[in-house]
């Protein structure tokens, strides 16, 4: 009745919007870095040697980089004021994509404006509800968010344990034989990282390629930390192991680690990249 | 999307601002709005009339739109058939030979729309430019030899195209060396990137300065900035709500809000666009009946709205929502991506536009990409909220922070707006934007186009309706050296494709006049003037009721 309804509305008390945070929570007070975050940085007033930033190639302080940035500042200003579709594509974006594709020796590349968003948007673009993804347990947070947004079935395998992965794949195959029509339309992916952020070791890529052809799964490789680090010329884990880059369906990386800037890119064959 | 209560009845009362209204409400197009009496606005209560238009098109237009899509679809099927049988060339990239027996990556039908309808007019999007995106820019010329499957750059550039598409509301996208000298200095000092997350080594003194400035600008206790605007929403909403909470979001909310809401795991309910009755009924049901199956009370209720909706140009009804929020004890999350800097007497957003207190809104969120000409987003509010976000937000822990030159650009833009650099340039920009907006909208109304949205919003959608006109409109405007943005399905409902203009403070009167004249000609040529209620430019003639008869 109306009277009861009004009473219910009066009585209801929500939780506070945010739970109170104690004053000495460890992450509350950040260290303030003054001056450029290069190899020697000044934290909270003290000068320290920097072992904490992902500045692998030391490009944060490079004069050539800074001069190029100054020139582009004079020509383009600071922001793009628009998404890619509506006059936000500059000729430098296109040039960057071409150069990345040539460097990585793939057909095409596409760039994103934020590293976290790169992998978190690339995964849901291909894998939808009902598809199956085999993911390493130690996958980084951005991958986890991408998986959550894609709503696919996720099967975790123990970190770098190829035998476990093979077992999971075999189970999947027996399931497929029970239901061949459904199996024909569910896509299967393996998502691995080149250099894992959480544990710091490298994934065994040649064995993964063998598994790929045996069980017909596609591989998505996340090279955020290994781009610019592994391999003779810095092309990443494919060069490190000498694997043909066309075997990997999609390589995604973020440029915030070795390349000392902001953003990310995905590269692969045109067939895969056009979809994005 | 047209407001469902906007039924076109025969007449329209276009009341001018200085008419005195006897009753408190007035009916316009069937929408009842509370019109407040006009007077000098001294900031405490909004005394402006809240006029929004969502006119529906005549029936024949809707029919023809569907016919257009139907023809496109039939041709699409025909061409797919021909392609499958090899009668026509396949221009799409195909799978590798070794992987031919893998499960196909894309379903054919998913791309039907993209392949057949979008490909025909694809040259109107992703146009590359090669200069600063100010009021005028240089476009790179692109031609296609095979009907938009591939593009080729001729190497020439089209100079000085008037820019009606970039979100450059206050005109801060400039390369004036004097204005940018602090940015250049910071670039030299700090370098280009950060290479670290916010909680580790990524918190520079520049960030602290920027956050204090943002908090001061908005009039709140504290603020926190993030590297990307889109990611601000999708990474902080999950930190604020979780399972067992209820999210009430507007029908037309942006993808970032929808993604954040979905990632959080809370229950989502949608209310009709800007419709207060729908929101109130949802709130009452939620409190009375509780969670769907267990009937327990909800832990929290959050209302997600935007300041200006980018596809409609409508402004949120903030006073009513705040009163609802107080009555039912819900929390309000306001996304001011387009409205910060663009509305309000000094550019502080919808909160100032309605003359309200920023403490009424629990979470103020916005982006720096649009009005400030930089990149990134912020969340502002009470100190407890921001402290919580510093510790628990996904972005602070895992994502890189904003880079120093960008932060410096925002600091400079904000100081200019607040007048802290000693000039009145900021205020002048805001006022110029307001004047440009009102002039543009008034002239478009007079010409007879259908425009959606509030009279004060700088986002002006002009309805095109028919799919064939989308391509024609954009291409002809480019021939006249004006760059526009057209949107169709799936960003808008299928019958309401539109062209969207973004008025900027950097546009001069001459530029706006050029655009308006071009629109006039094109409107006649393409038959775009659907409005049945065009305002006459000389209403004084109606006053003549008596005239002398010559004997």
UniProtKB/TrEMBL annotation, chain A:
Cofactor(s) in the UniProt record: pyridoxal 5'-phosphate
UniProt keyword terms in alphabetical order: Acyltransferase, Lipid metabolism, Pyridoxal phosphate, Sphingolipid metabolism, Transferase
InterPro entries, alphabetized: Aminotransferase_I/II_large (IPR004839), AON_synthase_class-II (IPR050087), PyrdxlP-dep_Trfase (IPR015424), PyrdxlP-dep_Trfase_major (IPR015421), PyrdxlP-dep_Trfase_small (IPR015422)
Enzyme Commission code(s) on record: 2.3.1.50
Molecular function (Gene Ontology), one example: serine C-palmitoyltransferase activity
Reaction(s) the record says it catalyses: dodecanoyl-CoA + L-serine + H(+) = 3-oxotetradecasphinganine + CO2 + CoA; L-serine + hexadecanoyl-CoA + H(+) = 3-oxosphinganine + CO2 + CoA; tetradecanoyl-CoA + L-serine + H(+) = 3-oxohexadecasphinganine + CO2 + CoA; octadecanoyl-CoA + L-serine + H(+) = 3-oxoeicosasphinganine + CO2 + CoA
Pfam families reported in the protein's UniProt record: Aminotran_1_2
Residue stretches in coiled coil: none
GO biological process, one term: sphingosine biosynthetic process
Pathway named in the protein's UniProt entry: Sphingolipid metabolism; Lipid metabolism; sphingolipid metabolism
Aminotransferase class I/classII large domain residues: 47-273
GO cellular component: endoplasmic reticulum; membrane
Entry's family note: Belongs to the class-II pyridoxal-phosphate-dependent aminotransferase family.
Function: Component of the serine palmitoyltransferase multisubunit enzyme (SPT) that catalyzes the initial and rate-limiting step in sphingolipid biosynthesis by condensing L-serine and activated acyl-CoA (most commonly palmitoyl-CoA) to form long-chain bases. The SPT complex is also composed of SPTLC2 or SPTLC3 and SPTSSA or SPTSSB. Within this complex, the heterodimer with SPTLC2 or SPTLC3 forms the catalytic core. The composition of the serine palmitoyltransferase (SPT) complex determines the substrate preference.
Name of the protein this chain belongs to: Serine palmitoyltransferase 1
Species this chain originates from: Nothoprocta pentlandii
Lineage per the UniProt record: Eukaryota, Metazoa, Chordata, Craniata, Vertebrata
TrEMBL record, chain B:
Lineage summary: Eukaryota, Metazoa, Chordata, Craniata, Vertebrata
Protein name: serine C-palmitoyltransferase
Nucleotidyltransferase is among the record's keywords: no
Entry GO terms, CC: endoplasmic reticulum membrane; serine palmitoyltransferase complex
UniProt-listed Pfam families: Aminotran_1_2
Pathway where it operates: Sphingolipid metabolism; Lipid metabolism; sphingolipid metabolism
Transmembrane feature ranges: 57-78
EC class name: transferase
Main subcellular location: endoplasmic reticulum
One function term, GO molecular function aspect: pyridoxal phosphate binding
Species, as recorded: Nothoprocta pentlandii
Cofactors named for this entry: pyridoxal 5'-phosphate
GO BP terms in the entry: ceramide biosynthetic process; sphingosine biosynthetic process
């Amino acid at each position: 009745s109306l009277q009861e309804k009004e009473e219910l509305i009066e009585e209801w008390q929500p939780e506070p919007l945010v739970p109170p945070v104690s004053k000495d929570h460890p992450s509350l007070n950040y260290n303030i870095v003054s001056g450029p975050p290069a190899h020697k940085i000044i934290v909270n007033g003290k000068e320290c040697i920097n072992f904490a930033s992902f500045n692998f190639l030391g490009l944060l302080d490079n004069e050539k980089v800074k001069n190029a940035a100054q020139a582009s500042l004079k020509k383009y200003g600071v922001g793009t004021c628009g998404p890619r579709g509506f006059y936000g594509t500059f000729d430098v974006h296109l040039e960057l994509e071409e150069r990345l594709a040539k460097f990585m020796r793939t057909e095409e590349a596409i760039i994103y404006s934020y590293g976290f968003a790169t992998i978190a948007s690339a995964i849901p673009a291909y894998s939808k509800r009902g598809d199956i993804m085999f993911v390493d347990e130690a996958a980084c947070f951005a991958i986890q968010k991408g998986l959550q947004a894609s709503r696919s079935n996720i099967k975790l395998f123990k970190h770098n344990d190829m035998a476990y992965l093979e077992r999971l794949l075999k189970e999947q195959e027996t399931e497929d034989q029970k239901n061949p029509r459904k199996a024909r339309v569910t896509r299967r992916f393996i998502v691995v990282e080149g250099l894992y952020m959480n544990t710091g070791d490298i994934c065994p890529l040649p064995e993964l390629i063998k598994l790929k052809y045996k069980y017909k799964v596609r591989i998505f490789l996340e090279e955020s930390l290994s781009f610019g680090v592994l391999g003779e010329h810095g092309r990443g884990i494919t060069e490190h192991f000498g694997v043909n880059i066309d075997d990997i369906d999609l390589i995604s990386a973020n440029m915030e680690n070795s390349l000392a800037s902001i953003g990310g890119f995905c590269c692969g064959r045109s067939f895969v990249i056009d979809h994005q | 999307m047209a407001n469902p209560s906007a039924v076109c009845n025969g007449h329209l009362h276009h009341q001018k601002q200085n008419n005195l209204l006897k009753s408190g409400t007035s009916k316009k197009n069937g929408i009842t709005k509370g019109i407040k009496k006009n007077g000098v606005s001294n900031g405490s209560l909004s005394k402006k009339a809240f006029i929004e238009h969502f006119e529906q098109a005549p029936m024949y237009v809707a029919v023809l739109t569907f016919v257009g899509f139907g023809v496109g679809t039939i041709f699409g099927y025909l061409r797919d058939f021909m392609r499958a049988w090899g009668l026509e060339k396949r221009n799409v990239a195909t799978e590798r030979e070794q992987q031919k027996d893998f499960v196909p990556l894309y379903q054919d039908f998913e791309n039907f729309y993209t392949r057949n309808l979008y490909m025909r007019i694809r040259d109107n999007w992703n146009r590359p430019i090669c200069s600063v995106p100010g009021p005028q820019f240089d476009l790179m010329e692109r031609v296609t030899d095979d009907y938009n499957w591939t593009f080729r750059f001729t190497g020439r550039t089209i100079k000085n195209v008037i820019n009606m598409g970039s979100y450059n509301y206050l005109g801060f996208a400039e390369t004036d060396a004097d204005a940018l000298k602090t940015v250049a200095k910071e670039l030299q000092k700090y370098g280009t990137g950060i290479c670290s997350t916010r909680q580790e080594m990524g918190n520079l003194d520049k960030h602290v300065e920027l956050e204090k400035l943002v908090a001061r600008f908005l009039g709140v206790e504290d603020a926190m900035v993030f590297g990307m605007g889109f990611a601000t929403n999708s990474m902080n909403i999950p930190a604020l709500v979780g399972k067992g909470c209820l999210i009430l979001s507007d029908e037309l909310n942006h993808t970032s809000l929808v993604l954040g809401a979905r990632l959080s795991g809370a229950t989502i309910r949608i209310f009709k666009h800007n419709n207060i009755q729908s929101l109130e009924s949802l709130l009452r049901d939620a409190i009375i009946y509780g969670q769907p199956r267990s009937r327990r009370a909800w832990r929290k209720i959050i209302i997600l709205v935007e300041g200006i909706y980018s596809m409609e140009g409508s402004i949120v009804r903030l006073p009513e929502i705040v009163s609802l929020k107080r009555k039912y004890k819900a929390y309000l999350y306001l996304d001011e991506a387009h409205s910060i800097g663009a509305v309000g007497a000094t550019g502080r957003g919808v909160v100032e536009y309605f003359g309200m207190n920023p403490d009424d809104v629990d979470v103020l969120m916005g982006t720096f990409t649009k009005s400030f000409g930089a990149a990134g987003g912020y969340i502002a509010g009470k100190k407890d909220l921001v402290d919580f976000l510093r510790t628990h937000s996904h972005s602070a822990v895992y994502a890189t922070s904003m880079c120093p030159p960008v932060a410096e650009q925002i600091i400079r833009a904000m100081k200019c707006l607040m007048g802290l650099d000693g000039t009145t340039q900021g205020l002048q920009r805001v006022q110029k934007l307001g004047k440009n907006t009102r002039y543009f909208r008034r002239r478009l109304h007079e010409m007879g186009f259908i425009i959606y949205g509030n009279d004060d919003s700088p986002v002006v959608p002009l309805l095109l309706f028919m799919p064939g006109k989308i391509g024609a409109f954009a291409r002809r405007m480019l021939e006249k050296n004006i760059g526009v943005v057209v949107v169709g399905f799936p960003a808008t409902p299928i019958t309401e494709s539109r062209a969207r203009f973004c008025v900027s403070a950097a546009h001069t009167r001459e530029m706006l006049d050029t655009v308006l004249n071009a629109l006039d000609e094109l409107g006649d040529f393409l038959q775009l003037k659907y409005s049945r209620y065009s305002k006459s430019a000389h209403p004084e003639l109606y006053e003549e009721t008596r005239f002398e008869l010559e004997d």
